[in-house]
Write a structure and sequence with these properties.
Low-confidence stretches: none
Order of helices and strands: HEEEEEEEH
Structural class: alpha+beta
Shape: globular
Strand content: over 45%
Helix content: 10-25%
Number of strands: 7
CATH topology: Immunoglobulin-like
Largest sheet: 5 strands, antiparallel
Mean pLDDT: 85
Number of helices: 2
CATH class: Mainly Beta
Number of domains: 1
Strand order of the largest sheet: 1-2-7-5-4
CATH architecture: Sandwich
Radius of gyration: 18 Å
């Protein structure tokens, strides 16, 4: 029955490989910075990966301090077993980054 399930569900999903190709600062203030990241995404799967939009927020679990947030404003489709380019905007909070850095120095990790 395992082979029938595999046939019905398709091949297992493999994680894409994301590589930072370019980064530049678009805004800098006393509180933080806005960065543009150009990422290369390799899709090892036998099917297309299609992302219409993506937003995220990185927060320290222990105290809720926000470290960074960002978004992919333009959708991206990466063909099967191929690569594509994505541009991601990241907003970094210097206060949050400092808090995370202190945790790493004190405990060797942050949460």
């Amino acid at each position: 029955m395992g082979s029938c399930q595999s046939f019905l569900l398709g091949p297992p999903f493999q994680d894409p490989t994301v590589t930072l190709r370019l980064m530049w600062i678009t805004s800098l203030t006393l509180k933080g910075a806005t960065l543009n990241l150009r990422l290369s995404i390799y899709n090892p799967n036998p099917f297309e990966l299609n992302v219409q939009s993506l937003t995220y927020r990185t927060t320290k679990v222990s105290d809720g301090v926000e470290i960074a947030e960002g978004e992919l404003r333009e959708g991206i489709a990466v063909a099967a077993e191929s690569s594509g380019i994505a541009n991601v905007i990241v907003q970094i909070s210097f206060g949050g980054l400092g808090a995370a850095s202190k945790s790493v120095v004190r405990r060797g990790k942050t949460d």
